[in-house]
Write a structure and sequence with these properties.
single chain; alpha+beta; 5-stranded antiparallel beta sheet; 3 helices; globular
Length: 142
Amino acid sequence: MTERSLTCKACDGRWPPQNHRIADLGLTVAYLFEDQFFPGWTVLVLKRHARELYELTREERGQVIEEVTAVAQVLAEEFHPVKVNYGLLGNQLPHIHWHVVPRLADDPAPLEAVWGHPHQPMPLGEQARTELIAKLQASLRG
């Protein structure tokens, strides 16, 4: 573990919340994003510390994009979006993590990036979160 990863909240388990965990996909772990203002928003977090795609091997990059694609397909089957958005930024949390966001027909901000649209965060209640995670887990296994 590098010195940098010791202070990384993704590496030390401070983010995302563990009760939002959907599945271990291999190189990443999928979590339901805390804010569900955009329903289905999911984040895949690399299990080891890396800040940039070029820090991964070619094989790792290929596997990560396959994991992102698998989650996107499951979200598409569950939410029937108009489009799925993908985000890999890292300027707020310098640890590779992909945002995968189904954009629905009734999207309140169809032309904006999800993090650019001002809104009150909408966490799901425990029961709704648990039920959605269970559906997504079943679909990923299926």
